[in-house]
Amino acid sequence: MSSAWAGGTDAIIERMDKMTELFLEENRKKIYSGESAEFCEECGEPIPESRRKAIACRYCLACQSALEK
After folding, report:
1. Which single residue of 7, 32, 36, 65 could bond 52 by disulfide (Cβ 3.0 to 4.6 Å)?
2. pLDDT, tens digit, for every residue of 22-58?
3. Which residues contact 6 (CB under 8 A, 6 or more apart)?
4. For 44, left (φ over 0), alpha (ψ -120 to 50), or beta?
């Protein structure tokens, strides 16, 4: 039996939590990497420089919010 499963329910939950954290961390890196667009791909308006530097984005904040709904 694997040592990850030998500690009982608490150990299993702890291991699953850690695996979930690692999965999310890796996917966040993929989402927020790369270059930002200067202009929104939805409406064509300029994307503020502060937003472009904070995350890699393709849409202005208004369009991003609308797309997420």
Report:
1. 36
2. 998 887 776 666 788 999 999 999 999 999 888 888 8
3. none
4. left
